[in-house]
Amino acid sequence: MNKQIVLSDIICYLIFPLVIWHVCRSMLGDYPAMLVSSIPGILYTVYRFIAVRKMNIFGIFMVTDLVIGTLVDVTAGSGTQMLWNEAVYSIIMGVFFGFTIFINKPIVLYFCLDFTELQGHNRKKMKPLFYRKEILRIFNLITSLFILRELLGGILKMWLVSEYGADAFNKGIIEKQILNWGISALAVFGFIYISKKLNEQKPPPPALNKEEANKA
């Protein structure tokens, strides 16, 4: 994982929200403080989308997730309900990821197609390579990791809310980031394996004849 991205994630998804939560909670109350603390993460997500500079599947997913997530928060009406809504939404996302595997279109595979296209590769040529049995299996496993992240995250948040009420925001945001980083680290190994397999499938360069060899 890029160190700059990890540092930015820590600052925008963890440090800023926690600082804003603790500073604003006593002045604004639980629910308004939660909404305000989500602003850095929203702005950072928008920035990352703009950095991609293309409305591809990954970009559409980011924007849709951001819009739905924001609506889930602002329509909750209370801090505790906001946390419950986020937990349910997380479980729904896990089911959605599972559905993409069920229809043989694991969403992580399409995210990777977007990124390889941005790097100059031909999308139509890369897609059949990604759908080779051994590589598709790894994409399904990586997508399953994200299913695990969403389901565990949602169940954990439900338990925290039932135990601590609005105080679960403080505990849940740390647990969420630890879970995200752990799953992301495992996913990286999968991407490395896929890259290795794709390189193995590239045809060897043509052999030089004697005249070309002498010139070389």
Secondary structure topology:
Blueprint lengths: L2 H26 L1 H8 L1 H14 L4 H18 L4 H24 L4 H12 L4 H8 L2 H32 L3 H33 L9 H6 L1
Helix pairs in contact: 1-2, 1-3, 1-9, 3-4, 4-5, 5-8, 6-7, 8-9
Keywords: Membrane, Transmembrane, Transmembrane helix
Protein name: Integral membrane protein
Primary descriptors:
216 residues; mainly alpha
Detailed description of the structure:
84% of the residues lie in helices and 0% in strands. With 216 residues, it is an all-alpha fold. It has one domain. The radius of gyration is 21 Å and the shape is elongated. The relative contact order is 0.10.
Summarize, please.
It contains ten helices and no strands. The protein has helices at residues 3-28, 30-37, 39-52, 57-74, 79-102, 107-118, 123-130, 133-164, 168-200, 210-215.
Low-confidence stretches: none
End-to-end gap: 38 Å
Q: Outline, from the CA principal axes? A: elongated
| Residue fraction in strands | under 5%
Number of strands: 0
Helix count from the secondary structure assignment: 10
What's the pLDDT, averaged over the residues? 77
Fraction of residues in helix: over 70%
Structural class: mainly alpha
Order of helices and strands: HHHHHHHHHH
Give the C-alpha Rg. 21 Å
Quick one: biggest sheet?
Answer: none
Q: What number of structural domains do the residues give?
A: 1
Organism: Heyndrickxia acidicola
Transmembrane segments: 5-23, 29-50, 57-76, 88-113, 134-158, 178-195
Keywords: Membrane, Transmembrane, Transmembrane helix
Protein name: Integral membrane protein
